[in-house]
Amino acid sequence: MNTTPLYRQLANHYLDAIRSGTLKTGERLPSIRLMMEKHAVSLSTAVQVCRELEDCGVLEARPRSGNYIRQPDTLPRPAPVASAPALDTSAYVGIHQQVSTVLKASQRATIKVNFASAYCAPELYPLKTLQDNMIKSLRYDTSLLGAAGSTCGNSALRHLLARRALASKTHLAPERIVITNGATEAINLALRAVTRPGDTVAVESPTFYGLLQILESLSLRVLEVPASAHTGLNLSALEGLLQGPEPVKALIVIPNLQNPLGSIMPDANKARLVKLCAEHNTVLIEDDTYGDLVDTEQPLSTLKHWDRTDNVIYCASLNKTLAPGMRLGWISAGKWHDRVEMLKHTQSRGCELLSQLAVSEFMRTPSYERYLRRLRKTLTVQRAQMSTAIARYFPIGTSVTHPQGGTLLWVELPRRHSSMAFFHEALKVGIQISPGDIFSNTERFDHFVRIGCGAPYSPRIDEALQTLGRILKAQG
Questions:
Q1: pLDDT category, 32, cuts 50, 70, 90?
Q2: Are 394 and 246 in contact (CB under 8 A)?
């Protein structure tokens, strides 16, 4: 009996047709509807087939046109990161200084094009709607700015967040949600609630540099666990670390659209990860900041969905999906709720109320879902345009991830290139990128860069990418 999932069997069928030349570059793949009829499969299976082919780098979606075969080796994806031995946690020092050097250099430069941002361009956010909602809130309650909000945040917003979480099969109790100043504060609170200075915390590698700064600021020792752009965290490597002599107090993971890899962890891996952490008494801290930007109508499951022992602390944010200027995030800390609530009160008191009211007013309407669908479609186009341009302008041997959502591309340069040298040369001509060095305390990513795709493609962006290509080629 064939135990391979049906969607993968069909994907392999089409891969064989591409390899044999039956399906040629530029030809259109059968539509989702036709695939459903031809193979007698469900809509979700047909969509999974296309996602699998896109993940293999042989399929590209063209807006309002369909799915087309692309040259598979035009822009190869990075090979999965192999398992690595446990890293020496005593070597984990100084990442804050390295990140600060990069950020300060960027602040001093005159930036014309910013590829370092993980945000969307301001014009893609519903700013006018949010502004109108703020004005309505102030008119309705003229004393609003004179009152302090509760530590946990606006009750209506917390109920909305809990209700929306149900779509991803995640059960959050509204009364045990705390509104925070973005996901950064949420993760800070989670770590402060479950660790002490000197404890060991595991993270994905590479991971968001801001997280590395948080960990260093809390005097926590760190283990970096290899992750790949295909399936995220390497569970075999993690299991080896958890079985080692050094207890791992907590693990921080971005399961859906990991930053910077853009990986999505399969459901089987999510379930195994939650079980693994529970068995080893390692608190699992989930960052779901990018979940709403995944290219699916049906939200992906969260790690919290698989949690049976209340061992997962769920953190999320609206900074990337709705309004960066509002800095709204939240944390559902389960059995650590009381401690998190007190830490929140001690650290920053309650979050500003006006933005919470404006957001909850928007999120309660059908317009919010329509907005998210438009945003996801727009970002799909922008990522494809950026990826194509990188293939055209960067040196031979460059590879790039193909994330199924979000605003980020993780680009691997030929090994002879230094991402830090590339960063400084780009700054000289007013172009900002994120060098791979700051996403790890190791040197494994010194020839990678993170490129943001949050702005609509334009001649200015195209010219900037051409310039970056010329810089790389001049470096040899």
A1: confident
A2: no
Distance, in Å, from the CA atom of 287 to the CA atom of 185, rounded to the nearest integer, reads 11
Helix ranges, 175-224 (H): 182-194, 209-217
Architecture of domain 127-367: 3-Layer(aba) Sandwich (3.40)
In three-state secondary structure terms, 132 is helix
Domain range annotation of the chain: 6-69, 89-123+369-474, 127-367
Q: CB under 8 Å to 137, separation ≥6 — which residues?
A: 144, 354, 357, 358, 361
467 Cβ contact partners less than 8 Å away, ≥ 6 residues apart: 426, 429, 431
Task: Identify residue 40 by its one-letter amino acid code.
Answer: A
Task: Note if the bond before 85 is cis, omega within 30 degrees.
Answer: no
How far, CA to CA in Å, does 169 sit from each of 40, 61, 166, 302, 355? 27, 28, 5, 8, 27
Q: Cα–Cα distance between 314 and 337 in angstroms, integer?
A: 11
In terms of Cβ atoms closer than 10 Å to its own Cβ (0-12, 13-18, 19+), residue 27 is exposed
**pTM (2 decimals)?**
0.81
What is the residue type of 346? T
pLDDT of residue 169: 87
Residue 11, both tokens: 């994907």
Fold of the CATH domain 6-69: Arc Repressor Mutant, subunit A (1.10.10)
Q: Encode pLDDT of 426-456 as tens digits.
A: 999 999 999 999 999 888 999 999 999 999 9
Rounded distance between C-alpha atoms, residue 419 and residue 424, angstroms: 9
Q: Which amino acid is residue 370, in one-letter code?
A: R
Give CA–CA dist 193/342, Å, rounded: 10
Quote the Cα angle for 131-135-136, to 5°: 115
**Which residues, other chains included, contact 323 with Cβ-Cβ below 8 Å and sequence gap of 6+?**
125, 126, 127, 130, 355, 359
Distance from C-alpha of 394 to C-alpha of 388, rounded to nearest angstrom: 10
Q: What are the E-state strand segments in 145-255?
A: 177-181, 200-205, 221-228, 232-233, 250-253
For the beta carbon of residue 244, count every other beta carbon within 10 angstroms: 13
Nearest to 237 by CA among 80, 445, 5, 444: 80
pLDDT in tens, 217-276: 999 999 999 999 999 999 999 999 998 888 999 999 999 999 999 999 999 999 999 999
Can 6-69 and 127-367 be said to share one CATH topology? no
Rg (CA), the chain: 22
| Domain at 89-123+369-474, CATH from 3.90.340.10, 2.40.30.10, 3.90.1150.10, 3.20.20.70 | 3.90.1150.10
C-alpha–C-alpha distance, residues 222 and 88, integer Å? 9
